[in-house]
Each structure stands twice: as structure tokens, then as C-alpha cells.
Amino acid sequence: MNTEHPHTYINGVLSGERRVLSKTITLIESSLPAHQQLARKILDALLPHTGKAVRLGITGVPGVGKSTFIESLGMTLVGDGHRVAVLAVDPSSSRSGGSVMADKTRMEKLAVEKNAFIRPSPSGGTLGGVARKTRETMLICEAAGFDVVIVETIGVGQSEATVASMVDFFLVLMLAGAGDELQGIKKGILELADALAINKADGDNLEKADRAAAVYKNALHLLRPASLTWTPPVLTCSAVDMTGIREIWRTVLAHRDKSTASGELAQKRQQQALQWMWSLIEEGLKRRFGRHPEIIKRLPQVSRAVQKGSITPTAAAEELLFSLDNS
Ligand SMILES: Nc1nc2c(ncn2[C@@H]2O[C@H](COP(=O)(O)OP(=O)(O)OP(=O)(O)O)[C@@H](O)[C@H]2O)c(=O)[nH]1
Ligand SMILES: [Mg+2]
């Protein structure tokens, strides 16, 4: 293929060629300026073909069963005639080579499905950088005709909020504990969830899962609802036995129907687009700041002065920002 021309990529993606899809994503992930420029052209052209997929975010602690769940849900959806893309936001993946990469072997059946596409988290970089690449990859997958995009995260740092800000529906997978359900739960996660699902509701664990679901239902009740039309349900499932999986998908679709009818989905996506723009602006400004010759020259000295207490952080910040304005 001609690897210089945007049209080679654009046409390939639009006709759903996997090899071209992968190559386009590689361009998006590349930090070479020439690649980035090419990727921007491709993205611009593909943008009108995006936005039609169901965007589903999934999180949960390591071992909760995310990969097994995605394999089960993915196979169910592919069986129903859907085309499913699985992406990941994992800023720590530079360390391990990508959790989803390792998972590809755990998502054995889905990985070889022709109507499924699994892409590991882009390696390296900040959460912001990884998120940008994943977002753009999501758009490319939509243009390639995938009508369900699943974005997985293991929940390091702010990654849950980041994933929640790029999807329509955010599902939190949980495990039944020993009665102390709310102890181990990460702060803020319940506010992000559009549904909770207690996984591993099978065998001896079934009763415990039901009890945990009751506790979570109560907890969610106490939180102010994020929407007037949607109360996050608490479900149970077994990714291994494949029970409760369809119910969860029906919940995703019910949420989609309601939020489409009320206009909330369109509004959410508009807000997400604006939020995305602002995070790119912030990232860009920071980068420019750090590269600016005047800042590079003065920063060490000013930093030392702040450490010694001979200048206040406020004055220091103002001084540095001022020198940016005046050069
Ligand atoms: N009994 C039971 N075991 C499950 C279920 N789902 C997953 N498991 C098991 O739990 C273990 C972890 O499952 P994974 O799917 O790898 O979990 P994960 O959340 O992807 O884990 P990380 O990728 O490490 O974050 C595996 O041994 C699975 O077989 C379930 O529904 N029931
Ligand atoms: Mg996994």
C-alpha cells in the first residue's frame, strides 16, 4: 500500500480492511511529526463516518474478570451480528507490555473472530496521551464499521474518569466481599457508574453476590442521581457461566434508548467533545511552557527560590507566566 497518502488509509478503513485499520492506529500512536500530520488528515476525513457505535466503558480491579467478561459479552454480540472493537486505557502498560495484550490470549475466542478487533493500550506516555490515542482509535474503529466499542481500564489514578469521559455508558465490575462491600471501593467510582455488576455470581458465590448487590443498591440510592431519567442498576453476572451477560447488554441498550430520547446522550457527547478540546489545550500549553527558552533558562533559579521561601509560589508562577507573555 502507498503509505504516504491519506486516501490509501481513508479508503481502507472505510471498507473495513483490518490491516489498514491497524496501520492507521499505529500512525495515531506514533510520535513522529510526519505520522501525526498524516493521522490528522485521515481523522478529519473519517470524522463524518464516526459516532454511530455504542461506546461502552468497563472498569474493575485486577482479577475481577474484565477480560473474561469482555470475551463473553463480545462473543454474544458477535453472535448477534455486531462488530465489536475492544480498546484499553492503561497508562501503566509501558511496564507490562499492555494488559490487554496479555489478555488477548485470555480473550481467545474473541481474538480470532473476524467481526472483533482487539487493540492493546498504546504504550508509554501520560494518561492524557494514552487517552487521546484511544479516543482517536475509537473514532477510526467506528469509521471501519464497528458498532460496539468497548474501552477497558484497570483504574490506575484518574483513568476511570478518563474512560468515563469518552464513553456513553460506564460499567463497573465488582466482586462480592465479606460484607464490608463499601470499604474497598474507590472514591468517586459510584458517581461515574451507569451500572454496577457483581461478577463471579456463580457456584458458592451466588448468595454472597446477591447480598453485595443489595448493599450497593442502597449505596447508589443515597447518591444524587446524575440524571433524572436514569438510576444506575446493580446487576449480578458470571462471565464464566455466561449468566447475566445479556441482561447487562439490555441495560446498556435501555440506557441508550432513554438518553437518546431525552437528548442526554447528544448532550453528553457534546460536553465530552468540549472537555476533550480543553484537555488538549491544557496539555499543549504545558508542553509549550516547558519547551520555551525563557522558561528553560529561568525555571531552575525560580524553583530554588520557591524552595528556599525567598519568593512565594504565587509570585513565582506569575513571574514565569509573565516572561512567557513578553518574549
Ligand atoms: N468463578 C468465576 N471466575 C471468574 C469469572 N470471571 C473471571 N473469573 C476468573 O477470574 C480470574 C481473573 O479473570 P480475568 O478475566 O483475567 O480478570 P481481569 O479483570 O481481566 O484481570 P486483569 O486483567 O488482571 O485486570 C480468572 O482466573 C478467571 O477465570 C466468573 O464469572 N466466575
Ligand atoms: Mg484482564
Briefly summarize what is shown.
The protein is built from 15 helices and 7 strands. The chain has 327 residues and is an alpha/beta fold.
Describe the protein's architecture and organization.
With 327 residues, this protein is an alpha/beta fold. The chain has three domains: 1-49, Single alpha-helices involved in coiled-coils or other helix-helix interfaces, CATH 1.20.5.170; 51-262, P-loop containing nucleotide triphosphate hydrolases (Rossmann fold); 277-325, no CATH class. 56% of the residues lie in helices and 10% in strands. It contains 15 helices and seven strands. It has helices at residues 6-14, 18-29, 33-46, 66-79, 93-96, 99-104, 108-111, 127-143, 159-164, 189-192, 206-222, 245-262, 264-291, 293-308, 313-325; strands at residues 54-59, 84-88, 116-118, 148-153, 169-174, 195-198, 234-236. The protein has a seven-stranded parallel sheet, with helices on both faces. Strand 5 (169-174), helix 10 and strand 6 form a beta-alpha-beta unit. Helix 1 (6-14) crosses helix 3, helix 2 runs antiparallel to helix 8 (127-143) and helix 14 (293-308) packs antiparallel against helix 15 (313-325). The chain is globular, with a radius of gyration of 22 Å. The mean pLDDT is 89. Magnesium ion is lined by residues 66-67, 99, 103.
